[in-house]
Design brief:
The structure is a single chain. This protein has one domain: Gcn5-related N-acetyltransferase (GNAT) (Aminopeptidase, 3-Layer(aba) Sandwich). Helices cover about 35% and strands about 30% of the residues. It has 5 helices and 6 strands, in the order ββαααβββαβα. Strand 5, helix 4 and strand 6 form a beta-alpha-beta unit. It is globular, with a radius of gyration of 16 Å.
Amino acid sequence: MTHRTDLTIQHLGPADTDVLHRMLDVFGQAFEDPDSYGHARPGPAYLQRLLGSSTFIALAAEQGGEVVGALAAYELPKFEQERSEIYIYDLAVLATHRRRGAATALIQHLQALAAQRGAWVVFVQADHGDDPAVALYTKLGTREDVMHFDLPVRGA
């Protein structure tokens, strides 16, 4: 665990499904999308498998016993070299706890995990117009302008 003032960063394991549910609540509230993060939640066995996976990383920022920030990431093993990349899939902090270092603490904890795992980079996407996210990621890393495409899965 990482400590920053009274903030604690917890790296979740298979026994922490209750904390993962609280993280999903944070994502739903922070992104103003409670249906996506609360409507069809996976069952306990699925969540335990996910949290036990070597390629999924869940970090919770807790303050006073409350989850106030959450980060979900995936380790992507590479094929061209024996190394991996870490992709931040979701990162959110409750509006009442923003601009206090929670997002930075989550990312720094992830960077330390990435170094332990031998990953060569942590990367994240930000949407145009999400100025706070762009400012945070610009402060912490190097910007690349890329395009993102969603390709449908046939027969799904």
